[in-house]
Please model this.
Amino acid sequence: MNATPAVQPAAGDHSVPGDVWSRDFVHRHRKWCEDFVLELRLVDVPGRVIGDRLAEVESHCVETGQFPEEAFGDAAAYGKAVVAEAGRGSSVGVWSTALLSAGQVLVLFVGSGAAARWAHDKLLTYNAVQVVCLVGVVLLVALLPKALGAVIRRPLVVGVPYLSLGVAAGVGAALVSGLALPVIVSLSAAPVAVGLFVVSVLLSVVSYVNLRRSEDPVVSPLAGEPTGDSALSGSRTDRRVSLYSSFVFPVIYVILAMMNWVA
Amino acid sequence: MSDRVPTGEWLRGVLETCVLQTMTDRPTYGYAIITALAAAGLGEIKGGTLYPLLARLEKKGLVSVEWRAGDGGPGRKYFALTAAGREELKAAREQWGVFVTTVSTHLAVDVDREATQEVPR
Model:
């Protein structure tokens, strides 16, 4: 017996704890399990703790023949009860990812605009309304961790307006460029376009390292179902997802810059 | 016992103690604890109530935990009393005894008063 709170694989099992999503129980009660995991993920409860609590649910339901809804009630409400006992995790990883993404969005907007100006041999200029719109977009992305719970739980009431606000600010920044407003920022377009592309690549590298370092899969302490192969394949998939999501910004940057150049 | 008696509310105050009591002989697991409490006449405790309570006991260091392979099942999480848990249970038993005596004395006084007031003419 452990004197300290710990999660151990079941006795006799020497395999690495497996990804909960490959468990048959989780497949059969996917909706309940997803809602439960989401509630704990939103407050950064560590993956191992989530896996442990989900294993309690699985073990109990298999033993009693009950559905999770019968034995544990609403998944989100039970998740909140578990959070009250398990405590919240560190949210440093989520916030650093949000800030990096906000930086990428800013670089994307300014850099692609600079490419268009460079193509026409003009200065990159911003008026006050454009600056406010850009700051608005960046803030909406940077504050996403704060709003994420409401955005996911109430997509129509919160999610769509949140996204619309971001799009409106972005489109607004582009539209007001044609208005005869006083210019408050004026820069040479070529070095900005090239320099910000380099910044975008650097932010992607930092983002990739950050994502790999903060990877925290939800693993089950229960033995049996997940094989080493599935764990390995899950790890490869995670790495690919981190790579694509990190380097998507420089790719979009190049595409937008090329479109602006030829337009 | 009358249906109006709020046993659920009474139990809430002593459920931790009752759960600790189920572990006195040997380490046990969630479903066995629910069965033991039901057999003791305390009603059926839902998993959604029991497991957060067990997590609280674990956090306080009153129980230790261990996952073990189940008989044909996916595995069971066993809970065992720690030394601090045994001390807590002992103290809770004594406090409960004092509480029951106090409440019983109080309720008996009320019954005596009612008996004297309802003397037939």
